[in-house]
Each structure stands twice: as C-alpha cells, then as structure tokens.
Prior knowledge:
The protein has seven helices and five strands, in the order H-E-E-H-H-H-E-E-H-E-H-H. It is of the alpha+beta class. The protein has one domain (6-178). A three-stranded antiparallel β-sheet has the order 2-1-4. Strands 3-5 form a two-stranded parallel sheet. Strand 1 and strand 2 form a beta hairpin. The chain starts with 5 loop residues before the first helix and ends in a 5-residue tail after the last helix.
Amino acid sequence: xxxxxxxxxxxxxxxxxxxxxxxxxxxxxxxxxxxxxxxxxxxxxxxxxxxxxxxxxxxxxxxxxxxxxxxxxxxxxxxxxxxxxxxxxxxxxxxxxxxxxxxxxxxxxxxxxxxxxxxxxxxxxxxxxxxxxxxxxxxxxxxxxxxxxxxxxxxxxxxxxxxxxxxxxxxxxxxxxxxxxxx
Length: 183
C-alpha cells in the first residue's frame, strides 16, 4: 500500500517515530455474507494493543461486549488520538473499496471475534457490502450502543438507495470534523 499524498506521509512518519512499529495495522474483518478479508488502518495504538485489550475488557463502555469501546483507551498513541478523531486512520480502507471487499457506504466491517458473539438479528448487518461510512457513523459513531448500531445498519440495508448513500456521504464530513463519538 503506497500513497503519494503529503498528509499520509506525515502521518506515516509520525506513527513510525512514535514507537518504531509498523505504520499499518492489518486485521481480519467480516464483510458481505460472512466473507473475511484483510482490513488496513493507519496504526493508532501501541504495538501490542491486541494483547492488552483482554486486560481492559472490564472497562468496556459498550455494555454487551459484542463491541469494545473505551473513551480514554490507554493503548492509543498521541498521533493515534489525532488521526482517530479526524478518521485519518481509516484512509487505507479505500484499498478495500478498490478491491471490492467494501463500498463507500454500508455497515462498518465487523471484527471476527465480535461476529462470533452476534445474535441472529445482529448477523443481518452482514447482508450488505460493508462501507467506509454508515448511518450510525453520522448518528453518534462510537457513542451509540451496539444494538442501536445494528438497528441503523438494518434500516440502511432495508432502505438502501443512491440518494441515501449520497446523503450519508455528505453528512459524514461534518460528523468526522466534529469528532463526536470518535475514540
């Protein structure tokens, strides 16, 4: 993965300078009909963040543990706080759009460990190609509890249209710039 955008080079240099670790964080995500795919982000956490997560599960701010959110997650680096707030960490996901694993709009791609905990209702989120942005991203982002995220994703899937996609894309810009619910 390579980018000629000067902003991404600055982000890459800051990530590398923080702790010498990898610039990208690769994870397996679950997409359309349960298909797994490799999912890149600019790394916003310490190198051993996945191992540390188990120790932090008692501090999960999503009550049902299907998803993990923590406002002041100690694993996030200084540059990670900046790039997460502005969703810059998600820019490498355009690669998944180009490959056809994701679209611009659709339910966010799920983490495999979370899908293992899904109910039948939750699995309805997997009936659409995942997207870079979605209805719950513009409606509160990480502040929304998981059942509300599922409800909004299912609503999107059942009423998907070009107009809805355009509106979500337009509303994503102010949602990202406000930083509300981004952590």
